[in-house]
Amino acid sequence: MAVSGGKDSLALLYALAGLKRFYPASFTICAITIDIGFGMDFTPVQRLCDELDVPFFICHTQIKDIVFHPENPDAGKGLEKDFKLFEEKKLIKKRAETIGNDGVKQVIYQIVF
User: Fold this and answer.
1) Rounded to an integer, what distance in angstroms lies between the CA atom of residue 62 and that of residue 113?
2) Phi, psi of 34 (to 5 degrees)
3) How many CB atoms lie within 10 A of CB 85?
4) pLDDT value at residue 100
5) Could you give the CA distance from residue 48 to residue 16 in angstroms, rounded to a whole number?
6) Crossing angle for the helix pair 102-112 and 77-97, to the nearest 10 degrees
7) Is-contact 31 55, C-beta < 8 A?
8) Which of 49, 63, 68, 72 could be a cystine partner for 54, CB 3.0 to 4.6 Å?
9) What percent helix, strand, coil does the chain show, rounded to 5?
């Protein structure tokens, strides 16, 4: 299973490891993390995996170096684009809420969201 190191993935890992102990069908769990290059310390994840007897693999990549490289003309633009789209959707939603016709609102929401 994919493990980011956040509370959701760690809780799921813990739950699956617990389920494995008594579930009638046998299954195998392994934890995989993709290290994108921001220097995160995965030692706590490794310790939990060791405690749960779950193999833990880290796939080291250079995603950060590629995406945020100064010579990359698109460096960081994905985040800017996502934020701009989010802001545009907020404005459209705000405008749609001023329309009195619920049918029109629904059409706008379905198109945008």
Assistant:
1) 33
2) -100, 115
3) 11
4) 57
5) 13
6) 170
7) yes
8) 49
9) 55, 10, 35
Put simply, whether the predicted model's pTM sits higher than 0.85 gets the answer: no
| 89 vs 47: CA distance, rounded Å | 42
pLDDT tens for each residue of 10-28: 999 999 999 998 999 999 9
Alpha-carbon 53 to chain mean position: 25
Q: What is the DSSP string of 68-107?
A: T-TT-TTTTHHHHHHHHHHHHHHHHHHHHHT-S-HHHHHH
Residue with tokens 């509370």, as numbered in its chain: 7
**Gap between the Cα atoms of 68 and 75, Å rounded:** 5
